[in-house]
Amino acid sequence: MLLLAALLFYEQSRLESAITNARAANSAYQYSQLERDLLKAALICSRGGIDPVRATNLEQRARLAVHSFSFPLLAPESRRTLERLLARLEAESARAWPCERLEAWADRVHPIVIEATEVSSTVRSNLLVQLRAYRRDTLFGFVIVLLFAAAYLYYQARQVLGQRRRIADLESEGAFKTRLLGMVAHELRTPIATIVGFSELLDDPGADHRRYLKRIQNAARRLGQTLATFLDLYRLESGQRLELERRPVRLGALIAEAAEMLQIQFPGRFRLEPEDGEVVVVGDEGRLFSTALNLLTNAAKYGPEGEPVRIRLACKNGTARVEVYDGGPPLEPEEAEAIFQPWTRLARHRGREGHGLGLAVAREVIAQHGGRIGWEARPPGQVFWFELPCENASP
Question: What are phi and psi of 89, to 5 degrees?
Fold first, then answer.
């Protein structure tokens, strides 16, 4: 089988060489056309000058000659002559040349036309010999045997690859489920402990019930968003599309709610800039809330401690844009692209809470809403943003 493959590769290389020679054998025409156009331009020049169209055609003719298949077969001096001619035509218009220079260049090109004709004749002769040898050496039986061998190998390879792919899918699915269960247990522990702890404190008659209830509500909301993120991730890993419950959503109010929810964990960190008008988008409110919550959490968690996280929302030309700015050191472009992939954690973020899933799910959510999400450096900090089709922006 290896010998047959080697023979096939050898015959194919000979055929490609023959095709190249066939193209080179028919390229001498370009040089004679260049000489003719130079002489014609010199004659017209002596009668009153060259118009811009003819000057451009002369440059294009020189370019075709330099890029023809027979050009590498010419003598080095001939190639340099043609390249200098093309460079001068590109650098300055032929209209500004004296007529004598056009004639002089035509005289230089004339020997190249003769040389190219001789090269074409030699190439044609060699091509005929090469094609005869190719037909003589290519046996019909060899092709038949090779086709059967290739078909058999292809069938076997397909079978092996299919089995390996099924095994890998089963192993990957099992590992994913195990990993997901471990993360669910880890992520749910904190909000559940918060709910239980503050619920017990409500028994104290002197307790600040309103404050404790607020913390319980935030923890429960965070618990629901975490579960929703994991469910979305499982659907995406299974190749399913997310089922979006679309309805009008006031984007400014949604972002303000996400910022308020995080105030307990990151007090005083968020600055929401005023909107020009109320921005309304059509989408799944829960998933858009999770996306906003994820961007705000990342900015507060990975940005400099005490540095405010600025949030800007605007609707322009039918597109709503949300920008979350933090003053931390900007990421490298390669890092910014990597963090939108699932299970990716940067070296600088290791040791902090997280699993590298939020931005991956957020990118898919925004994409299925018909929008975009991305990152850009804005020294001394950086901005994570997403865009959605804007329903309206009323004052």
Answer: -65, -35
